[in-house]
Amino acid sequence: MSILLGAPKFLETGLIVNTVYGGGITLLSLPGKVYSGVLERRVRRIVEPRIQEEQCGLCPGRGTVDQLYTLCRILEGAWEFAQPVQMYFVDLEKAFDRVPRGVLWGVLLFADDVVLLASSDRDLQLSLDQFAAECKAAGMRISTSKSESMVLNRKRVECTLRVGDEILPQVEEFKYLGVLFTSEGRLEREIDRRIGAASAVMRTLHGSVVVKKELSRKAKLSIYQSIFVPALTYGHELWVVTETTRSRVQAAEMSFLRRVARLSLRDRVKSSVIQEGLGVDPLLLRVERSQMRWLGHLIRMPPGRLPGEVFRACPTGRRPRGRPRTRCRDYVSWLAWERLGIPREELDEVAGEREVWASLLRLLPLRPDPG
């Protein structure tokens, strides 16, 4: 497995594997939990040195955002220089249950939620054949009903892939690790989904939680923090927040908080006053802090880590005519300049000091209240 970084050269790759652990659920007695914990720590010492860079499920210091950012950055650079990317999102048939235990203990690793990338359908088919053969050898099988291909290209391109005798479907969008990726490489539809999901949460909880008089404000805000906010902001590390996005996120946020405060738009109370009264930070302030925290994490990431490598990669080539899209990296760098006054040439030095960077983010000021 390999991935070459830099654009367009980072597209000359056989595959990139993004893995999320999908283990079963086991109910244990208290002594069983203690024994399980001891066993897990001993096994982890054996497994961790063998875990490859593409594995992020239940690994210390890693998570789905690593894989989402890596894929997003590759697609971003490819689109900028009009380089096609052929993708195949692989789903394995009950991956955990299908792995023979003898094989599992032998390799100590297995994969699910995989993305294969290549610059042509021929290279992608070769990678898929190799991957399918490795899965078969480990007792696993690709689910052709759930796996789909997609092509990032400025023009419509057919991508005909096969697993055995079956032709795999090609789609214009695919939800990977909870984030919607499209054949145009845009995240606007994903942000729309996030806002829609948050609105659906509020509608579901409206009568039983949000406006229920018997429920304390503290309990309502706890539900707001634990359910509504994650539904709205999942994957925000990838966002380029435009003024339109900002307005829509604020509207979704305040729709919930006004009801908790038992107010409406007709009361003409400013958003900042409501937030201060409820004791919550503006949601976009939290998003900005989180985005810049992720920026600092990328800057400090050691060589060899995929998110850090694609972050530092400098794509080269010839851009098509027209105004280029704002890259996520450029947006967050601009955010650090606008909100913290740190110029780009000093960003690596300042963000490279974890404690200094964390203290700056804690002091991040509120934006002026638009109303």
Characterize this entry briefly.
The chain has helices at 30-47, 64-80, 95-98, 101-107, 121-137, 188-210, 217-233, 243-260, 271-278, 283-300, 306-312, 328-340, 344-351, 354-362; strands spanning 85-90, 114-118, 148-152, 162-163, 166-167, 173-176, 179-182.
Question: How is this fold's topology laid out?
Answer:
Elements: H1 30-47, H2 64-80, E1 85-90, H3 95-98, H4 101-107, E2 114-118, H5 121-137, E3 148-152, E4 162-163, E5 166-167, E6 173-176, E7 179-182, H6 188-210, H7 217-233, H8 243-260, H9 271-278, H10 283-300, H11 306-312, H12 328-340, H13 344-351, H14 354-362
Antiparallel strand pairs: 1-2, 1-3, 4-5, 6-7
Helix pairs in contact: 2-11, 6-7, 6-8, 7-8, 10-12, 10-14
How does this structure look, described?
The protein has 371 residues and is mostly helical. The protein is built from 14 helices and seven strands. The strands form three sheets. Strands 2-1-3 form a three-stranded antiparallel sheet. It has a two-stranded antiparallel sheet with strand order 4-5. β6 (173-176) and β7 form a beta hairpin. The N and C termini lie far apart (52 Å). Pfam families: RVT_1 (PF00078). InterPro entries: HMGI/Y_DNA-bd_CS, RT_dom. Its main location: nucleus. Residues 107-179 form the Reverse transcriptase domain.
> What is the CA-atom radius of gyration, in angstroms?
23 Å
Q: What structural class do the secondary elements suggest?
A: mainly alpha
The total of beta strands comes to 7
Number of helices: 14
> What overall geometry do the principal axes of the alpha carbons give?
globular
What is the residue-averaged pLDDT?
A: 85
Major sheet attributes: 3 strands, antiparallel
